[in-house]
Amino acid sequence: MKVFSRRFSAGQLVSHIALWVLLLLTVYPFISMLFKSVKNFDQDTHNPWGITLPFYLENYSLAWETVRPFMMNTVFITAAATLGIVIFSSISGFILARFVFPLREAIFYIIISLMMIPGILSLIPLFILIRDLQLIDSSWGLIGPYIAGGIPFGIFLMRGFMEKLPGELFEAAYIDGASIFQSFMRIAVPLSRPIITTLVILNILNTWNDIILPSIVLTDDAKKTVAVGLLTFTSQFNEQVGPLFAGYIITSLPLLLFFIIASRQFISGMTSGALKL
């Protein structure tokens, strides 16, 4: 029994050491980026890895002036695209989950089959369509494709979750005279808040970090998103790592803060059984 206990303790020790090493390797780049963001050129040259005083906070004001228009553009595009995805996905998921009609399952499988098509294959036809609609250098040239591309996965999530809502609640609402729209807004939507939050977070992450579509749709620097704008920012401050890393931190903070605030709902949605893989 003692031998087993010693082996188990040794295994635990090795596991803890391995986890701490992995944690250090994961966290160190972010800590290093934070340290470098408060250094000027001379401080970074003489002490590239350690902490230097005083902190050079002017890097953040300089970075903010550069990345602010990129962030405003990205916030608008992300908010509009996410709102459209949530509205269309929740309504479609509700209909496919709570109503029985001919070809319901066929329609659902056709919709989710669109998830199997790699986005890169539709990039050229999508660009031609955006060009023909004269949406080049327009935010709507991104919002429309983002909504269309996010709806299939959104329907997949919403339908799977809403199928598990108690049918008695909707029957009682219909008996009390509630319309379909009222039962959707007052029962389905409030009860589906965890999965809606999950859908919102996933789409915000995808839209905020996308670089492929904005790089071919947006050519005007004043209309670029964060992902594309940071490329310009990098070329502008390629020798001054302080403003460069300060810009990276500023553009990452909105996603980090939002995820911290909504993490409980996100975990609840992910563990609710809505993902049927």
Element layout with pairings:
Elements (H helix, E strand, L loop, with lengths): L1 H35 L4 H6 L11 H41 L5 H10 L9 H10 L7 H23 L4 H9 L4 H12 L1 H17 L2 H6 L8 H11 L4 H30 L7
Helix pairs in contact: 3-6, 3-9, 3-11, 3-12, 4-6, 6-9, 9-12, 11-12
Question: Would you give an account of this structure?
Answer:
With 277 residues, the protein is mainly alpha-helical. It folds into two domains: 2-36; 58-270, MetI-like fold (Orthogonal Bundle), CATH 1.10.3720. The protein contains twelve helices and no strands. The protein has helices spanning 2-36, 41-46, 58-98, 104-113, 123-132, 140-162, 167-175, 180-191, 193-209, 212-217, 226-236, 241-270. Helix 9 runs antiparallel to helix 12 (241-270). The chain is globular. Residues 1-6 and 273-277 have low confidence and may be disordered.
Short description:
It comes from Paenibacillus baekrokdamisoli. This protein has helices at about 1-35, 40-45, 60-100, 105-115, 125-130, 140-160, 165-175, 180-190, 195-210, 210-215, 225-235, 240-270.
Strand content: under 5%
- Give the count of helical stretches: 12
Number of extended strands: 0
Named CATH topology of the largest domain: MetI-like fold
The end-to-end span amounts to 42 Å
Tell me the name of the CATH homologous superfamily of the largest domain.
MetI-like
What is the N-to-C succession of helices and strands?
HHHHHHHHHHHH
Stretches with pLDDT under 50, minimum 5 residues: 1-6, 273-277
Structure classification:
mainly alpha
